[in-house]
Amino acid sequence: MTILPGAGAYWFEGNEVGCLLIHGFTGTPQNVRPLADYLARRGLAVSAPRMPGHGTTVADLDPTGPEEWLAAAEQALGELRERCSTVFVAGISMGGTITLELARRHPDLQGVIVMAAPVLPLEALEPIVGDSSRPPSIPAPWATVGVLTEDVGVGGITYLEMPLGALERGMGLMTQVREGLGEVTVPTLLVYGDADQIVDKANGPYVLESIRASDKRLLALADSSHEVTLDVDRERVMIEVYDFISARSKE
What we know:
By secondary structure, the chain is α/β, with parallel strands linked by helices. The protein has one domain: Alpha/Beta hydrolase fold, catalytic domain (Rossmann fold), CATH 3.40.50.1820. Helices cover 34% and strands 17% of the residues. It has eight helices and nine strands. It has helices at 33-41, 58-61, 66-83, 94-105, 126-129, 164-179, 203-210, 234-248; strands at residues 10-12, 17-22, 45-48, 86-92, 111-115, 137-139, 161-163, 188-193, 216-221. The strands form two sheets. The protein has a seven-stranded mixed sheet, with helices on both faces. A two-stranded antiparallel ribbon has the order 6-7. The radius of gyration is 17 Å and the shape is globular. The model has no long low-confidence stretch (mean pLDDT 95).
């Protein structure tokens, strides 16, 4: 198995406050690298694992699903907890959906940051996924420049095709997470781009209303699309995430 250049996992040593960063479906840890660098420069320990099936080939992603992705996230979380006394989890897109599931499973987390996470049905994709004669994969919407980010000068390392088997299983995870939102009680920062062409911005208010955390906030970014960690508001995202972590850290 050959990992695409720049698509591998990474780890930054830091203090007793750690943050697990989880990338999205078809993406790679590179998609959250600017945020990781920002947090690491301020002393935090940062872990950014590569989810199974990602950063290699579309064929590698096709047989995987939430079972493998959640297992990888749980392993990375466990390793981070061995090194740090205070731990946060942040995720983008499907990584944000995984983050919500980790928040449900681990109510002792110090806080979570959920960015552009889908939990509502992907209505445009449901007929394609449900078609018995569907192809193995379809072109990803973000194969078109300007879809993932409003800033066309940036871009993440990601597949330009979506394997439908993995996508179908990912949509099942969205349903599972949606049904469990009422069990999420940890402090939560939600970040969604108003110009998102992949995940409906309605997901943000829905999650905000559904979780039971008393400490929760929705940050709506008027000028950003889906990949908020790379888009025009990326510096604001960095500051907001760091401030959220700092305010809730034991140190």
